[in-house]
Amino acid sequence: MPLATSKIELLEKLSKAYVNRDTEFDAITPDLERQKGIEGEVSCYDIVAYQIGWGKLLLGWEKSELAGKIPKMPAAGYQWNQLGDLANSFYR
Fold first, then answer.
1. CA 18, chain centre distance (Å)
2. Residue 69: is it exposed, middle or buried by C-beta count within 10 angstroms (0-12/13-18/19+)?
3. Dihedral of the alpha carbons of 30, 36, 40, 42, in degrees to the nearest 10
4. Per the structure, how many domains does the chain have?
5. 36 close to 42: Cβ distance less than 8 angstroms
6. Burial, 75: exposed, middle or buried (Cβ in 10 Å; 0-12, 13-18, 19+)?
């Protein structure tokens, strides 16, 4: 998917992605919400945790930059070659 080139386009893409994911999740019954098997052996809960985890990191990077600091990327205690471990920290 090409990157958005404007704020309006970004908001449209985010809205569309949200609606698509929400529709997918509506079809999942509560007893299956934590069952692994979606997109690489994760659960619905894991997907939401992943999105929240990266969202928090992005906000933290921006906060650091606005304060004139260099953000720890991708996250404190993690290197770019440890993204699997970082994702697992989101799931926990």
1. 12
2. exposed
3. 70
4. 2
5. yes
6. buried
Same domain, 12 and 48: no
**42, 70: one domain:** yes
Q: What is the pTM of this model?
A: 0.75
Give me the domain span that covers residue 10.
1-32
Mean pLDDT check: name the lowest of 5-9, 22-26, 39-43, 70-74: 39-43
Which tens digit of pLDDT belongs to each residue from 11-65?
A: 999 999 999 988 988 888 888 888 888 767 888 889 899 999 999 999 999 999 9
Same domain membership, residue 21 and residue 49: no
d(CA 13, CA 20): 11
